[in-house]
Amino acid sequence: MDMVADVKCYHCGWISGRVAGRKGAPQHLWAFEARDGSSTPIVPGKRLHCARCNGPTFAEDLRSRLLAEPLGAVPVRTAVAA
Q: How much is the pLDDT for 75?
């Protein structure tokens, strides 16, 4: 099953992107997907830093890729008839 998690900054709270990969797969088979849409493989031993302030990051909100929304997705608001 494919999984994704947000990559969030400890210092400023900015979400720089997300990591994606197969559940149970080694770290080097996962990829980092930046907010701009680019994707790079995870390099073991190399840390991801915040795109905004260069602070340390952590993975949060691990979820199934089937349920994950695309990066940059904006919730659709429906008009309510008065």
A: 45
Q: What pTM did the predictor assign?
A: 0.70
Chain centroid to Cα 38, Å, comes to 12
Looking from the CA of 44 toward its CB, the CA atoms found within 13 Å total 5
Q: What are the percentages of helix, strand and coil residues in the chain, rounded to 5?
A: 5, 40, 55
Cα distance between residue 10 and residue 56, in whole Å: 6
Q: Confirm if 8 and 64 have CB atoms less than 8 A apart.
A: no
Q: Are 57 and 10 spatial neighbours (Cβ–Cβ below 8 Å)?
A: yes
**Alpha-helical runs (H) found in the chain:** none
